[in-house]
Design brief:
It is a single chain. The protein is an alpha/beta fold. Helix content is 39%, strand content 16%. The protein has an eight-stranded mixed sheet with strand order 3-2-1-4-5-8-9-10, with helices on both faces. The longest helix is centred in the last third of the chain and has 17 residues. It is globular and about 45 Å long. The protein starts with 9 loop residues before the first helix and ends in a 15-residue tail after the last helix. The protein binds NADP nicotinamide-adenine-dinucleotide phosphate. The site of NADP nicotinamide-adenine-dinucleotide phosphate has 24 residues, from helix 3.
């Protein structure tokens, strides 16, 4: 990952170290260091997902900038009031300026348009929480898309670091996964940059989730499949909902 937005010079030191010690090891150390300090997070979309994650991240010390089509609306003003730690709301196009971590929480149909409107997203982590969903005869329809949404976003923004996450849990659970009984709720994630996955994992575990790191870009679509399992079950078993509680073991 590039670290051009670093405020404290740490990234520059890490890059020098990377040259000496090998890029992968140094890049991982950089990500781990970054997880120890408060992040600035732009949240695009102020609906169920954006509002719940915005409030919990702010409550643990991160700074949230909401990107909304109507930042001056009463609804968004109320959300800003409910979000601690100096949260603000601006237009979607403005929200990601100078911010490394961007949560995409808009309708999937608008995803590519939303990403294009953010401008230059080089070096930014784009957390894609979106699911492509359409229903026919009461059943979820498999999207006719061999690539998948996250991979499409990555192709549209090749210099950003797309991480699929939060698409396979309910927005209400995001505000307090601890309240779901039967073990921690697992968030499967995937993305081409290990450093980006480290930072997203830290943001995820910090609010009470477990993370299942499925791997690189090849796993983006797998995580989208998991999202469809979660949505399909929840849709056909209402009011029951599904949450994942994965565990690993060694043979
Ligand atoms: N709801 C869940 O439990 C859940 C869980 C996991 C993943 N997801 C996925 O996460 C995404 C967001 O879900 P959600 O439930 O938060 O949806 P939502 O409540 O409808 O919120 C989406 C937000 O995106 C913005 N938006 C709406 N239409 C837009 C457009 N055409 N272009 C740009 N922005 C637009 C709006 O915010 P502004 O009015 O402020 O612009 C809106 O509040 C979806 O892709 C969904 O599949 C949902």
């Amino acid at each position: 990952m590039t670290d051009d937005n670093s405020a404290d010079g740490f990234s520059r030191r890490a890059l020098i170290g990377a040259a000496a010690m090998g890029t992968f090891i140094a890049a991982t150390a950089t990500a781990q260091e970054k997880t120890k300090r408060p992040e600035k997070i732009a949240i695009i979309g102020t609906g169920n997902v954006g509002s719940n994650l915005g409030k919990v991240w702010a409550a643990i010390g991160h700074t949230v900038v909401y990107g909304s089509r109507n930042p001056e609306s009463d609804k968004v003003k109320e959300l800003v009031k409910e979000t601690s730690n100096g949260a603000t709301a601006v237009s979607q196009a403005e929200a990601a300026k100078g911010i490394e971590i961007v949560l995409l929480a808009a309708p999937s149909q608008a995803a590519l348009e939303v990403v294009a409107a953010l401008g230059d997203v080089s070096g930014k982590i784009l957390i894609d929480a979106m699911n492509v969903m359409s229903f026919k005869d009461g059943k979820l329809v498999e999207p006719d898309d061999p690539l998948g949404l996250a991979a499409r976003i990555q192709a549209a923004a090749p210099n950003a670091y797309v991480v699929k996450a939060f698409n396979a849990t309910n927005a209400l659970v995001m505000s307090g996964p601890q309240k779901i009984t039967g073990g921690p709720v697992t968030i499967p994630i995937a993305g081409g940059s290990p450093e980006a996955r480290t930072r997203v994992s830290a943001l995820t575990t910090a609010i009470g989730f477990d993370v299942l790191d499925m791997g690189g870009t090849e796993a983006l679509k797998l995580v989208e499949h998991l999202g469809r399992i979660y949505v399909a079950y929840s849709f056909t078993h209402r009011p029951q909902r599904l949450e994942f509680n994965f565990r690993t073991w060694s043979a």
